[in-house]
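User: I'm putting together notes for a lab meeting next week and I want to include a structural view of one of the chains we've been expressing. I don't have a solved structure, so I'd like a prediction I can at least talk through. The sequence is below, exactly as it appears in our construct file.
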Amino acid sequence: MKTKVYRMSFVGPLHVYESGYGMEASDMMIHSDTLFSAITGTAYKLYGDEVIKTFLENGKVLLSSAFPFWKIGADCYEYFLPKPFNWKPEIEKYADQKTFKKVRFVNRDIFERIINGGADSYKFNKKNVVNGCLTYGLGEGNLFVIHETTRIMVDRVTNATSMFNFSEVHFAENAGLYFMASVDESIEKEFRASLNLLADEGIGGDRTVGKGLFEIKEDSNFEFNSGGSKTGHYVLLSLYNPPKEEAGKIIPEDSSYEITTRRGWISFPGHSDKRRKSLRMIKEGSVIQLGGAKPKGRLADVYDTGEGVIIKRYGAAFCAGINTKIKQEAL
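Assistant: Thanks for the context. Below is the predicted structure for the 331-residue chain, given as structure tokens.
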């Protein structure tokens, strides 16, 4: 399946749940499980059960998470990818180490140098970090800003009031998010139609008041090779939930990863008041060694509606092979 790239240019603010913080914090990226759930939700509205069954077949739809992009010229874009967890460049000043630890993404050129060789001589400069993204300083200003407001919640029974904070991300006019997708030809038309509907409906929280709306465009100039690995290591570009047979093959001493817990509410019609089962995922940027095998992941069962429908959570692996040993400097 050919990998395509889709840019999401937001026309308003975005609120995406950040694990562990509820409404108080908003992430500035969209994880692959959230993106997949949103697209399959609009696919269900358009096509019903039969198409959804195909969407849920493991391997029919492979998605990365949605990462930042920056428009730096006429039809010229700088794309950012997760910083591999085991990459430690040369840092001349001790004070710059804290800045480097806050870097979540590197631009595409740096990323490809890391996984294919050529990054050993890279010298870190904190002036090239913008909103947690490591670049070459080609853009101007910020990619986004986070606004936090105070809201009041009224109890429907007692009328008692309580306050809470609500955060939302405002992207710059020349910035947004993008993701990569490999879709089976048999459902490519339905996938694109579902994505177009999602753009009109919005993604994330507060969609009823216009948040999360975006314009979607495909970038035919971006070619990404997510093939094999000469070292047996793979860097994750999506969340990853390995089945038992894969989890047992992970070599911890030769991997570098972090784990997050994904939880939330069911969005399936008639069950929106139910919580889905929590699921442990390996985070984007993690470097995995499975004895040379490529991580696959799975769509995990998280809720049984009791009506013959099993709600699944997307944990399939979208990853890039690492073709050279990554230089690691002790911090």
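A couple of points you could mention at the meeting. The longest helix spans residues 32-47. The helical segments are 32-47, 49-55, 96-101, 108-116, 188-201, 244-247.

User: Perfect, that's what I needed.
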